[in-house]
Amino acid sequence: MDEQQAAQFAIRVVDDLVDAWGGQMICFPTSYKRKLLQREEAVYSRFNGNNYAELSHEYGMGERGIRKLIARVRQRKLAEKAA
């Protein structure tokens, strides 16, 4: 799809949304917490016990932040097991 086709498609989508929902307030959740949890799980799944520096570089975080993240996920998993 070229740029002009994409623009025409976008206009049709907006027109359909206006027809269906015009005059109403619609709130789209940001799902920020869900995204953070997904990222934490991704980092934790790559953790092998001593690759803090590698993970900090890969995820653009400080090593201390990675250590705190690993500890947080570990605590959450222990709490889930205990429940």
How would you describe what is shown here?
The chain has 83 residues and is an all-alpha fold. The chain has one domain. It is built from four helices and no strands. Helix 2 crosses helix 4 and helix 3 packs across helix 4. It is elongated, with a radius of gyration of 21 Å. InterPro entries: c-mor_Regulatory_Protein, Homeodomain-like_sf, Mor_transcription_activator. This is Mor transcription activator family protein.
Secondary-structure-based class equals mainly alpha
Helix share of residues? over 70%
Tell me the overall shape: elongated
Count of alpha and pi helical runs: 4
Secondary-structure element order, N to C: HHHH
Calculate the mean pLDDT score and round it.
Answer: 93
Quaternary structure type: single chain
Q: What is the count of structural domains?
A: 1
Largest sheet: none
Task: Count the beta strands.
Answer: 0
Strand content: under 5%
Q: Taking Cα atoms only, what radius of gyration do you get, to the nearest Å?
A: 21 Å
Low-confidence stretches: none
Q: Terminal Cα separation, in Å?
A: 50 Å
Protein name: Mor transcription activator family protein
Domain Mor transcription activator: 2-81
Organism: Paracidovorax anthurii
InterPro entries: c-mor_Regulatory_Protein, Homeodomain-like_sf, Mor_transcription_activator
Short description:
Pfam families: Mor (PF08765). 75% of the residues lie in helices and 0% in strands.
